[in-house]
Amino acid sequence: MLYGIIISLITLICFLLIIVVLLQPGQREGLSGGLAAGMAGGSAMGARRTADLLSKTTAILAALFLSLSVLANFAIDRGSANQSTIQQQGMENVNPSDFTIPSESQPAVPPQQQSQEQTQEEGSDQ
């Protein structure tokens, strides 16, 4: 229930953010703004107050979008599952008797038997 409300608010904020960003006039600052202003005669038309209001509205909507997105992560209904479905499916097919204690299992590498000649040679080298 709460998750659905948060998602609908995020969707509404997305549409408002798109509209507010598209309403903003181009600025003369920056590389593209400077080139465009130079070609157009160097004079920019538009109300400064409207640009300030749109900039502040964009910042507020972006902050709301970010905070609601984080809040939506915590509002997801996960039910009683503490594991993912892959982990749950993997544990259904496991037989506990299949596991053996490492000391009871056979070693992976068979022990090597040294001949008496090799041990005598090693003793005489030292």
Automatic annotation (TrEMBL):
The keyword Protein transport applies. InterPro entries: SecG (IPR004692). Residues 102-118 have a biased composition (Low complexity). It is found in: Cell membrane. The keyword Protein transport applies. It is a multi-pass membrane protein. GO terms for molecular function: protein-transporting ATPase activity. The chain crosses the membrane at residues 6-23, 30-47, 59-76. Keywords: Cell membrane, Membrane, Protein transport, Translocation, Transmembrane, Transmembrane helix, Transport. Residues 85-100 have a biased composition (Polar residues). GO terms for cellular component: plasma membrane. It comes from the Bacteria. One of its GO terms (biological process) is intracellular protein transmembrane transport. Residues 85-126 are annotated as: Disordered. Belongs to the SecG family. Involved in protein export. Participates in an early event of protein translocation. This is Protein-export membrane protein SecG. It comes from Rhodohalobacter mucosus.
